[in-house]
Design a protein that fits this description.
Blueprint (H helix, E strand, L loop, with lengths): L1 H25 L11 H24 L4 H15 L2 H13 L3 H27 L2
Helix pairs in contact: 1-3, 2-3, 2-4, 4-5
């Protein structure tokens, strides 16, 4: 039963995060810069800040249930932006003084990820 409660917490948080992301994407601010993906930029930066802030706040500073922490960090921020998780993983590697691994992870994630987008577009165009 506890497993289903955690899954429900993540699902509810994820639904809220997805809605928040959508609302930012359709906001009037989305058209501020014609070519710059401003909404995604704001989502990624705010998500990165929030995952760092809330991870410490909800783990070390404020006593909250695991379900609430899962709903907010895994659910909401996971759906809001996966970039925040990426940033937190890089932070963990730097904190562990794994600088080469952190740099490799950053570069590979960006460049191989972009290659994945190109590959996906290329494959989809063949259908």
């Amino acid at each position: 039963m506890e497993f289903l409660t955690k899954i429900s917490a993540v699902a509810i948080g994820g639904a809220a995060g997805a809605v928040a992301r959508y609302l930012i994407n359709i906001s009037p601010a989305a058209n501020v810069f014609a070519k710059f993906p401003f909404p995604t930029f704001i989502i990624n930066i705010s998500g990165s800040f929030l995952i760092g802030f809330l991870l410490i706040l909800l783990t070390d500073k404020i006593d909250v249930s695991d379900n609430l922490r899962m709903a907010v960090i895994v659910g909401f921020l996971g759906a809001f932006t996966t970039f925040s998780t990426f940033e937190m993983e890089v932070f963990g590697l730097v904190r562990e003084r794994e600088f080469i691994t952190a740099i490799a992870y950053m570069l590979l994630s960006v460049f191989v990820g972009f290659a994945g987008v190109i590959g996906g577009v290329s494959l989809a165009r063949r259908f």
